[in-house]
Design goal:
This protein is α/β, with parallel strands linked by helices and 397 residues long. The protein has a domain at 15-78 and 110-178 and 284-358: FAD/NAD(P)-binding domain. It has helices at residues 22-32, 58-66, 70-74, 100-107, 116-128, 145-153, 249-258, 264-271, 300-303, 312-329, 332-361, 365-377, 380-385, 388-391, and strands at residues 15-18, 38-41, 53-56, 82-87, 93-98, 112-115, 133-136, 159-162, 180-192, 205-209, 213-220, 225-233, 245-246, 277-285, 295-297. An eight-stranded mixed β-sheet has the order 5-4-10-11-12-9-14-13. Strands 7-2-1-8-15 form a five-stranded parallel β-sheet, with helices on both faces. Strands 3-6 form a two-stranded antiparallel ribbon. Strand 10 (205-209) and strand 11 form a beta hairpin. Helix 10 (312-329) runs antiparallel to helix 11. The two termini are 22 Å apart.
Length: 397
């Protein structure tokens, strides 16, 4: 269960969290450590997300341990032996980043994979046992959030936290910024473990790199499946819906065209995908994450990221943990200012890494060859060391 209260907060504000995704649930658990109560408002009444595998890197799993939920997750998730970088044409390994025991030794916490729903349900189960948290499912909050919340709980919260994701309504209370299409789309699907092709490595995260696309495969043993995602570019005029949906034939064809020069085994895997989900990838970079008074954003609501470094959920966990720590130490107006000051530089650095990977992963022609050669000559230990700033991050709060 949630770790016992480590110390009573100097300040004990009433917190309203809009959104019961990973950011919102982690924030509520983090607040519990300081004895701070919260109300969570979630418009859905269920937690199913199709084909959504999740990578939890050590920078986030370290914090999940701090808030007392790691032991429950360790019995559910899978810790891959490595992140393998491979050619999408030859399927040969270009390099690898050791994980498993190496991750625990190098970065102080595990690197793991699991289904997104598994994580959310686990966090929710822990929260439901905690008297400091009130969960309001099937509750829609409008563009007038304080009015809605007062009508539901009978009082105005001291702080409103927008953890309502990419299409955040709370964001409009701070700045009028919409999410923008990135020019990339993802095809996501699952394959039953017993039906998986024999070329799939069931012990690792396998990232096959360009030309024109990249494809990631890793196991999800807790649901007896293999998670597969392909990402490529797409003209904006093809985007008819902003949310994920079962791929139309023309959308499936887009991916097959992008993979035209890829290895036949990988092409066949994507061609035969059953009910793959087509996801347009949007991003949103907010200048302001708070209004200086009573409203603040975390996770995708503040800084929706592309999945080229598998850090969206991990940054949300970091946000939640750090915001809770500041709220326990300072008055609200100071806490939310300190939170943004603490997080902005790191988020900017992660954005830079995402943009670098986005460029590198889809190279074609001679540039693809140069990339592959460069990856082959870097020692795996150096590749791992280059990620210390990301995976080895330890919050000083």
């Amino acid at each position: 269960m949630c770790e016992k209260i480590i110390r009573k907060a100097h300040y004990n504000p009433s917190i309203a969290i809009v959104g019961a995704g990973i950011a919102g649930l982690t924030l509520a658990l983090s607040l519990c450590r300081y004895g701070i109560k919260s109300d969570i408002f979630e418009q859905s009444d269920q937690f199913m997300e199709a084909g959504a595998g999740l990578q939890i890197s050590p920078n986030a799993s370290y914090l999940l341990k701090k808030i007392g939920v790691l032991s429950e997750l360790e019995s559910l998730w899978f810790e891959p032996s490595a992140i393998r970088l491979l050619s999408g044409i030859t399927m040969k390994e270009l390099n690898n980043i050791p994980c498993g025991s190496h991750a625990r030794n190098q970065w102080g916490a595990p690197y793991a994979v699991l289904h997104r729903t598994t994580l959310r349900k686990t966090l929710l189960s822990i929260l439901e046992r905690n008297p400091l948290v009130n969960l309001h499912l099937n509750t829609r909050i409008s563009e007038k959030p304080f009015t809605d919340i007062i009508n539901i709980i009978g009082r105005q919260p001291d702080l409103l936290v927008g953890a309502d994701g990419l299409w955040s309504k709370i964001r409009t209370c701070i700045e009028n910024r919409s999410a923008l299409f990135s020019g990339n789309v993802a095809l996501r699907f699952l394959v039953s473990t017993h039906k998986a092709p024999n070329f799939i490595d069931h012990q690792s995260i396998n990232a096959f790199l360009g030309p024109n696309a990249h494809l990631v495969i890793y196991p999800l043993p807790e649901i007896s499946s293999i998670n597969i995602v392909v990402i490529t570019s797409c003209p904006e005029n093809m985007i008819q819906e902003t949310y994920g949906h079962i791929a139309q034939p023309s959308e499936h064809t887009l991916f097959m065209n992008s993979l035209s020069s890829w290895n036949q085994k990988l092409k066949h895997l994507v061609l035969k995908a059953e009910n793959p989900f087509f996801w347009p990838l949007f991003q949103c970079h907010c200048d302001h994450w708070h209004n200086g008074r009573d409203t603040v954003l975390i996770g995708d609501a503040a800084h929706a990221m592309l999945p080229f470094a598998a850090q969206g959920a991990n940054m949300a966990i970091e946000d939640a943990y750090i915001l809770a720590a500041f709220l326990a130490q300072k008055p609200i107006s100071e806490a939310i200012i300190s939170y943004q000051e603490n997080r902005k530089t790191r988020i900017h650095k992660v954005y830079n890494r995402i943009n670098f990977n986005r460029f590198i992963f889809h190279l074609k022609g001679p540039n693809q060859l140069f990339r592959n050669i460069a990856l082959k000559i870097i020692p795996p230990a150096q590749l791992s060391k280059n990620l210390n700033w990301l995976y080895g991050y330890k919050s000083i709060i």
